[in-house]
Amino acid sequence: MELTVIDKQKVTSYLVQVSYLDKDFLFHIREIDDNIDINLIDENKKFLTPVPVELFLSKLLSEEDKVNFRKVYRNMSGLVLLEPLTREESIYVREMTKEEVVAFRYLEDAFSRDSMNKLESPLM
């Protein structure tokens, strides 16, 4: 038996808690080469991916689905949470709460590419 490494990638993973308005939000950040993925970890320990509403709508197949989604969720915060099923498929879970969006945006700002390239992150 023989083991051969086909592709070598550097993977860095962070577990970050953002506190806002007496609530704690847990995020998992994964950096693979030049790509950064941020997931919200919910109370059921599910990893949910924040996605802009417009990007989500662009993935819906029918125009009718898009119109119906916009009618029901016209006052959305701008981000929805998706649960990945496979590498290509996800299911809609819910919209992000305003507090979750604020925590997510804060994390995006605080966890910039520059801070990740330093030896010590400001979040640690």
Give a verbal description of the structure.
The protein has 124 residues and is of the alpha+beta class. It has one domain (11-116). It is 27% helix and 36% strand. The chain contains four helices and six strands; from the N terminus they run E-E-E-E-H-H-E-E-H-H. It has helices at 53-59, 63-72, 98-110, 113-116; strands at residues 11-20, 23-32, 35-41, 47-52, 79-84, 90-95. A six-stranded antiparallel sheet has the order 1-2-3-4-5-6. Strand 2 and strand 3 form a beta hairpin. The termini are far apart. 13% of the residues are buried. The model is unreliable at 118-124 (pLDDT under 50).
List the total number of helices: 4
Strand proportion: 35-45%
Find the structural class using helix and strand composition: alpha+beta
- Main beta sheet strand tally, sense and closure: 6 strands, antiparallel
| Unreliable residue runs | 118-124
Number of strands: 6
Quote the distance from N terminus to C terminus.
Answer: 42 Å
Give the CA-based shape.
Answer: globular
Count of all domains: 1
Mean pLDDT: 80
Order of helices and strands: EEEEHHEEHH
The side-by-side strand order for the widest beta sheet comes to: 1-2-3-4-5-6
Percent of residues in helices comes to 25-40%
Roughly how many Å is the radius of gyration? 17 Å
